[in-house]
Amino acid sequence: MNAPVPPAGNPAFPARTAPRCATLGALDRQVARCGACPRLVAWREEAAAAPRPAFRDEEYWARPVPGFGPPDAALAVVGLAPAAHGGNRTGRMFTGDDSGDVLFAALHAAGLASRPGSAHRDDGTVLHGVRLTAPVHCAPPQNRPTPAERDTCRPWLAAELALLPGLRAVVVLGGFGWQALLPVLAGAGWQIPRPRPAFGHGAHHVLTRADGGDALHLLGCYHPSRRNVFTGRLTPAMLRDVLARAARISGAGRGASGPAPCPE
């Protein structure tokens, strides 16, 4: 007999609950219930109680933000965590802030999103063959989750990727997401080279499986944060190039005809 799942506010809740979810819909519902990290729970609720003036008439989501995208996604985009007045407000990953505006414009240009912007979880935006997610599902203070919060949240990411059977490529936005993702991929059976692949914009590594399953393409991209975009460290063109490359490799996107051949 399976042991009972601890309450949603228990730190063991993600580890015990995530592997039991048989569909992305079930996983998303459980993610939104989670209260495993007290500091993050306090911060997401504090942000909702003190909205920015532009959002003072809106009701904040103020819960963990599930991933967004279809179950047949061949491409995943992994960020850092929701923004306090972005995803924490709208209830959709990468929606409602400057980073999301840049990302959705690039997704649309690559044929991966139905529109070049996303304002709210009910705005009708559709993703084509791509799933947006993060290693931490609650907005953290100063956009900096602790290692313990990252590790507590890890089972959600592991379960989410396991529920994408057609996954062929992952674009990781930033070094935090890169370091958080590698143990998840290793646990799922992909072989991580030693020394571990280093994060960098434009990095591209092909991970194989010991069981002979499909390879996974791991691509790095600077995070489309306001600072990175403002300073020119990441331009919209740079982001579009990485996403377009990932779409070609994975076969994701509107009108896609399947994954491109594995590069030599």
Explain what this protein looks like in three dimensions.
It contains 9 helices and 5 strands, in the order H-H-H-E-H-H-E-H-E-H-E-E-H-H. Helix 5 crosses helix 9 and helix 6 crosses helix 7. The N and C termini lie far apart (48 Å). A hairpin with an 8-residue loop joins strand 4 and strand 5 (216-221). Helix content is 34%, strand content 9%. The chain has helices spanning 13-17, 24-31, 38-49, 87-90, 98-109, 147-162, 175-187, 226-231, 236-250; strands at 75-78, 130-133, 169-173, 204-207, 216-221. The relative contact order is 0.15. The protein has a single domain (13-250), classed as Uracil-DNA Glycosylase, subunit E (3-Layer(aba) Sandwich), CATH 3.40.470. With 264 residues, the chain is of the alpha/beta class. The protein has a 5-stranded mixed beta sheet with strand order 2-1-3-5-4, sandwiched between helices.
Q: What letter string, H or E per element, gives the SSE order?
A: HHHEHHEHEHEEHH
What number of structural domains do the residues give?
Answer: 1
Which architecture name does CATH use?
A: 3-Layer(aba) Sandwich
The 3D shape can be described as globular
Q: How much strand?
A: 5-15%
The CATH topology corresponds to: Uracil-DNA Glycosylase, subunit E
Structural class, please? Answer: alpha/beta
The first-level CATH class is given as Alpha Beta
